[in-house]
Design a protein that fits this description.
The complex is a heterodimer of chains A (about 425) and B (about 350). Chain A has about 425 residues and is an alpha/beta fold. Chain A is built from 13 helices and 18 strands. The radius of gyration of chain A is 21 Å and the shape is globular. The chains are: A alpha/beta (about 425), B alpha/beta (about 350).
């Protein structure tokens, strides 16, 4: 990994002038650049594939003198997350990450981090949970914390990973939010796949990302507070409600951050979801992460055949973008949700995203049918044929065929 | 205060220099563990908290793992801590110390915080330290570039959750997970972990490991001051008599602490930069200047051993005799040299 050698001003897509360099790098390397540019103070690593590539890049940056940071190799994921939690309370900006069962080994620490409203940013290199063993992507690891106060986002490209990491620090540390944020990058498909990425210059990042300031919550001898006492039934409910308020406020803070990011970096993205060929769509597919690539290819193919299919990619899963999804999907006849996760025993035995999406669309008077699909588990490829099969079943459901919107279909699986 | 960089050993940052207090009259009156807690009468762990905070002084951050000294000490709106204090998870005393010290170090080095030596103390009970948090403490003691003290208050059970047996409970002790019954008299057959010596032997770059007992308060405070001054990660293991868990009248807490030392169950020592020093009555026992009292005198003062018959007392006495007569380093290193060595 080499840091940008020279900042060159350029204009991207008619946007604002942006410094930085273009580099052919993986998603993990892109996040490592974001960590350097965010001037993180304390970082903890523990090996598990595939997220750990980010720590390999970061440690080399430190060894080469490109980045000044305490780099601690912990003895477990639990300690990894506890160390940065404590470093954050004395005012350090921190970075951490994990994958699969490593993320779950840290589960206690993940819960208290959200409960304490410590604004850490973590990368999840999404990976199937053991057993049986698999290195490949599934989203159940990051989704395990979905109700605890972690903001969760999924990205599809290395560029989006770098940009969203910077946005994540700004949102998480905003005093209106003060919640941790997990940046999910699909294992292998994103963590290990290279693409051309604009690595911004330090000055632009500094203009976007203010220093981390805990103010009255700083644990320091000049501010001798007690953090996390025993509150019990006297106060726990009020404290939980404050966390809920922080998550609600995150919506506006995320929108502000994307607006400012677009103005400063010249890359304009809709904050919560990405809409692809949705303008006149009659049916829509919905998913998260790198499945966007085969889905978009398949959508273009189907459009060539005259099928009015669109795609909505959910970027932010927490807070869940109800308004945006209602707006994007309210007009279609049927929606196919492609979950790269499973919700065994859940309603209709569907995936996690399908469940939340059904909830979000239920208040609409003219709500579309929602059909749940599970695909690409354990790192299995979701190919364009899979997507075309799914779209065909969604069309069938829209037309009142035999496809059941109260069941879940596993795609690309041996019977 | 000195800042040195030793090639190959990472960076060291300065510590506060806290000299030993020569006698109780030299100890300042100011307290940093004050009113507001609700620990039991006769609680030696609360006494240890008070001594620890006093020894460290105002420029200190204290982290506390789940246990009695969290649950009974920090009720919301009535914290007794006059220094900054934060809870950490049961197995996280080591990680809390590392994270806090690393955060301070990074911020001071990068000019984001005023540069000054701030004491970091992270405490845990025997459940948090000798059981669940052992790996995190081990890792913390390897990171020699961070200054902190991990203090384990050992009341020999999970005392906060109703007195359950831990890896640091004595053989045969009656706890709620090891109550004697009609068929089995001894339910806890584990011998108490030798935690301090294990950590000292296992982490040769750790500059300071010590055992203390609050039956000698000034001595306990001076060990804390030494641990905070010496630099790098340090560990202190305190034996804390517990009226509720050990089942005795609270007035005898200090007396039981002294008996633990006098019977040889609890050896007092410190390992300073690789050198072992026995101190107090333990040194006199080692030198043959003080005869160990029979273990029975200690055991039979406590309800947790009331079910013991002579056979149990003899077994216990035999184990203590081994500690002092057969161990490679008496009371510390639990194996003999072996015939070939």
């Amino acid at each position: 990994m080499t840091p940008p050698k020279a900042a060159t001003a350029e204009t991207l897509d008619g946007g604002a002038p942006v410094g930085g360099t273009e580099e052919l790098i993986s998603g993990s390397e892109a996040v490592a650049h974001a960590v350097r540019l965010a001037d993180v103070d304390v970082l903890t690593a523990y090996p598990i594939r595939p997220y750990d590539t980010v720590m390999q890049y970061v440690s080399k940056l430190i060894a080469d003198g490109e980045f000044d940071c305490e780099f601690i190799v912990a003895e477990s994921e639990h300690s990894q997350f506890e160390i940065v939690k404590h470093a954050s309370t004395v005012g350090a900006r921190v970075f951490v990450g994990s994958s699969g069962v490593g993320w779950l080994y840290a589960f206690e620490a993940l819960a208290v981090t959200a409960g304490l409203r410590v604004p850490m940013v973590a990368m999840v290199g999404n990976r199937a949970l053991d057993d049986p063993g698999a290195f490949g992507v599934e989203h159940n690891d990051a989704l395990a914390v979905r109700d605890l106060g972690w903001m969760l986002c999924w990205v599809a490209t290395a560029q989006e990973a770098l940009d969203t990491a910077l946005i994540a620090y700004r949102v998480a540390e905003d005093p209106r939010v003060s919640l941790p944020c997990a940046l999910s990058c699909d294992g292998a498909f994103l963590t290990h796949s290279q693409s051309i990425v604009n690595v911004p210059d330090q000055a632009t990042v500094d203009s976007f990302l203010p220093p981390y300031d805990r103010k009255e919550k700083l644990l320091h001898p000049d501010n001798p507070i007690t953090i996390a006492p025993q509150a019990n039934e006297d106060w726990v409910m009020e404290i939980r409600k404050q966390s809920d308020a922080g998550m609600r406020r995150a919506r506006d803070v995320i929108t502000e951050a994307y607006d400012d990011f677009g103005a400063k970096f010249g890359r304009e993205d809709e904050p919560f979801i990405e809409r692809y060929m949705m303008e006149d769509a009659e049916i829509a597919l919905v998913g998260m992460g790198t499945l966007a690539m085969p889905v978009k290819v398949a959508v273009r193919k189907m459009r060539e055949q005259g099928q009015k299919v669109g795609f909505v990619r959910v970027r932010w899963f927490r807070p869940f973008p109800v308004e945006e999804l209602q707006d994007a999907l309210g007009g279609v006849a049927a929606v196919g949700v492609i979950d790269r996760d499973y919700g065994l025993g859940s309603a209709f035995y569907g995936g996690v995203l399908a469940g939340d999406l059904r909830t979000a669309l239920y208040p609409l008077e003219d709500r579309p049918k929602v059909v749940s699909f599970i695909a690409g588990l354990g790192g299995r490829e979701i190919n364009t044929d899979n997507v075309i099969t799914i779209a065909g079943m969604v069309s069938d459901a829209a037309e009142g065929g035999t496809t059941d919107d109260q069941d879940t279909y596993w795609i690309g699986v041996r019977e | 205060m000195s800042e040195t960089t030793v090639e190959g050993f990472g960076e060291f940052v300065e510590t506060q220099v806290l000299d030993a207090w020569k006698g109780p009259k030299k100890v300042p009156h100011e307290e940093f563990f004050t009113s507001g807690h609700r620990t039991c009468q006769g609680c030696e762990s609360a006494q240890l908290m008070k001594l620890m905070a006093k020894a460290a002084g105002p420029r200190t951050i204290i982290l506390g793992a789940t246990g009695c000294m969290y649950v009974a000490n920090t009720t919301y709106y009535s914290t007794p801590w006059a220094v900054p204090w934060m809870h950490t998870q049961l197995g996280s005393a080591g990680s809390a110390a590392t994270g806090t010290a690393a955060g301070l170090k990074a911020l001071m080095r990068k000019g984001k915080m005023k540069d000054e030596p701030i004491n970091v103390i992270s405490f845990c009970g025997d459940g948090g330290g000798a059981d669940m948090g052992l790996s995190a403490i081990s890792a913390a003691l390897q990171h020699t570039e961070y200054n902190h003290l991990i203090l384990m208050y050992d009341n020999e059970s999970y005392a906060n959750t109703d007195i359950q047996v831990s890896g640091s409970s004595p053989y045969g002790a009656h706890t709620t997970f090891s109550a004697p019954g009609k068929v089995q008299r001894i339910m806890n057959r584990r011998w108490k972990k030798n935690t301090a010596a294990m950590l000292a032997a296992g982490h040769p770059d750790c500059k300071y490991v010590a055992t203390v007992c609050t039956s000698n308060p000034v001595d306990a405070m001076n060990h804390v001051r030494k641990a905070l001054s010496i630099g790098g990660p340090t560990f202190i293991h305190s034996l804390d008599p517990c009226p509720k868990g050990w089942d005795y009248d609270p007035r005898y807490s200090h007396e039981l602490g002294e008996l633990a030392i006098e019977t040889g169950i609890w050896p007092l020592y410190e390992v300073v930069e690789g050198e072992l020093k026995m101190h107090g009555k333990s040194r006199r026992i080692l030198r043959g200047q003080l005869k160990r009292k029979p273990v029975e005198e200690y055991l039979m003062r406590q309800g947790r051993f009331a079910h013991f018959v002579q056979e149990d007392i003899d077994y216990f006495q035999g184990k203590i005799d081994q500690m002092w007569e057969e161990w490679l380093i008496p009371g510390v290193i639990p194996f003999s040299a072996g015939e070939e060595s």
